[in-house]
From TrEMBL, chains A, B:
Gene Ontology CC, one term: lysosome
Subunit composition and interactions: Homodimer. The monomeric form is inactive while the homodimer is active.
Organism: Oceanicoccus sagamiensis
Subcellular location: Endoplasmic reticulum; Golgi apparatus; Lysosome; Secreted
GO BP annotations listed: proteolysis
Lineage: superkingdom: Bacteria
Lineage: Bacteria, Pseudomonadati, Pseudomonadota, Gammaproteobacteria, Cellvibrionales
Molecular functions per Gene Ontology: aminopeptidase activity; carboxypeptidase activity; metal ion binding; metallodipeptidase activity
Domain Peptidase M28: from-to ranges: 222-405
Protein name: Carboxypeptidase Q
Amino acid sequence: MRDKALASSRGWAIVESLTTEVGPRLAGTEADIRAVAWAQELLQSSNFDRVWTEPVSIPVWRRHHEQARVVSPYPQPLRITALGYSGSTDGEMTAEVIGFPSMKAFKQADADTVAGKIVFINRKMERHKQGAGYPPVSRMRYTVVPAAKEKGAKAALIRSVGTDSHRFPHTGASVRSDNPFPTAALSAPDADQLQRMLDRGVPVRLALDIRVSERAEGITHNVIAQLNGRENPEEIVLIGAHLDSWDLGTGALDDGAGVAITTAAAELISQLEQRPRRSIRLVLFGNEEQGLWGAKAYAKQHADELARHVIASESDFGAGLVWRFDSANPDLMSTAMTALAALNIEQGKKPSSGGPDIGPLQQQGVPVFRLQQDGSDYFDYHHTADDTLDKIDPEKLQQNIAAWSVVTWLAAELPSVKRTANE
Amino acid sequence: MRDKALASSRGWAIVESLTTEVGPRLAGTEADIRAVAWAQELLQSSNFDRVWTEPVSIPVWRRHHEQARVVSPYPQPLRITALGYSGSTDGEMTAEVIGFPSMKAFKQADADTVAGKIVFINRKMERHKQGAGYPPVSRMRYTVVPAAKEKGAKAALIRSVGTDSHRFPHTGASVRSDNPFPTAALSAPDADQLQRMLDRGVPVRLALDIRVSERAEGITHNVIAQLNGRENPEEIVLIGAHLDSWDLGTGALDDGAGVAITTAAAELISQLEQRPRRSIRLVLFGNEEQGLWGAKAYAKQHADELARHVIASESDFGAGLVWRFDSANPDLMSTAMTALAALNIEQGKKPSSGGPDIGPLQQQGVPVFRLQQDGSDYFDYHHTADDTLDKIDPEKLQQNIAAWSVVTWLAAELPSVKRTANE
Ligand SMILES: [Zn+2]
Ligand SMILES: [Zn+2]
């Protein structure tokens, strides 16, 4: 199965189809409806025992227009993108900018110096194989809003949460509120440019024009497919990815790759002579990007069977090579490693997370595993217009599928993989 | 002087100032007026003997709005940029796309199959140290228009002339005419995306919305500074760069770097105890990008002294390391090489060109030299929004300035550098 995965172009065909035929698929939009239909058709045409969808109620936030320019002293455009749940500016709004190197520095600032201004937080994200630079900086997308409101700012700008130096601003969810606040990210070169202007010590005035909309009553779907277990069909090994994407790119790395990896892995298992002992459930989650809406809905809708979810994991970190397998189950670990070592995957440890959409399950006690990918360049593209198919290496995708098919099959087959207190 | 150049941050300060305080500076616009004022102030504050401007009459083409989207069968936006002198679409215009791998294939197509459609030429540019991949592909920007008009197409799209795979469309001049035609470039990932759709064999409909304007009677300026020669002030060594840039980026590599390199080199020479034998004239050309308007005006306005231009060269190929010195003058070559070898610059040959703005002078018999740069990644950024200051390596800039100061000084000092028939 591992070698079949390494020779198959199936994963590539899946992500090529999703990113080309659907493209960007912001949750709750018309494109998202097409994505759900695409996923249903894909899974129904494969060898699954059951394919179904489950509704997820969501707010539908949309981006309509976003523009920024320096009014004075050095008139020129700046490249921004509104963060998810940002408010609008009601036409072009002009104000002076006040810059801070970090949230900490901003929080210490006198409200007097901030009131009526556009706040700009210019904190850089560090590059790291496992994305360790992301959490401390991405947090800003949320924390900047209440602080900016409290000090009477007119809008908030952050340096993009990303590791590239291209003029792609990185979007991402911010704070949802009844009183939405204009919040946007500058691309790294634009953040540098604005900083150079501020460093000259003269007042810098920006004009922002952000138009977005939000509708409370939206809907998307989790798309689910199952291979029924041969002996213990009630026991579930859950693997998945998220189907939705931000609107700027075509959602290739985030998370078309995960959809392709987990779907192709499940398909390989479906083609074996017999079903594994337990059921394998493939979940393509709706609206991960704006707050794990699909994952939370799944955990709620399946509350009564979570105790029978023996293990779960999501592929949602791009298409880089898997380099480590993390599991708290010693039998699964040792058995899997006999096949994974040839894929240059090293033995890991107890995983801290099984992926964003697995969080709500993990909180309810579902054990998780992790196939750690090299995400060194993931945040070069993450949540930008540049997250497109050409950023995926087909061979690396195949290595991922090989690893996922091995681990998923073992998790569904090994007698030792069952819910125990120590996991 | 060479070592002083390698230790100085002057070149960086110049390009930092130009790209930050002026930013994008499309010829004939308000930003261009600020660029000319910036250049005058820069040169007047240095040790030149004379600083002046010369008017250049130009048409002023401007970009106002550009948007493309797939209407069917896979609705999604595509990233485009209008080419210089493109026409407008008069609101959103929808038509089917017909694709061709090359201009040759397009030219052979029946007009019947093209009429009423949007033509798409998807030819890739090859990466090359000296940019050899550029001319055969950039030519398309011009040749596609008459061919598309002749066959009754509604608009022309080309794959960007560039070597990157990021979602930055590359602009560049197209054909100017009384009957402008909507002409735009897709970024490489968008060209790939559109090609994948066409390859599915179903009709692909695009909506284009391009709004541009052109005003015939515009003006820009060549900004000129001179160090008067000690013995033969009437003999001129001309070095320069172009001051204008496209509107998408901040014109850092193209051609803020050249402005910094040649200005800093001339400044170093101006700080020597005595002026060299001949005059050194630094010319910052206006509107190179839309058709060498400044260079043509200079050649015309200085027709009577071109015979006294002993040698000329322009820096307009980014900020990569100089790796070869090209000159037809054996004395200049051998003398310069004693200083250039330590900069890892190898001895070259007779140059075919001294840079785009030197073309009109070369046609009038002015000899040229060339400090060949490594342009391997120049066309990753060329004419895109991503041509920003962060793409310049300060140390490489210093090496350029060191090389230019050495060669320029020698050209102005060596008795053997004079107009001879064999150059
Ligand atoms: Zn994701
Ligand atoms: Zn140029």
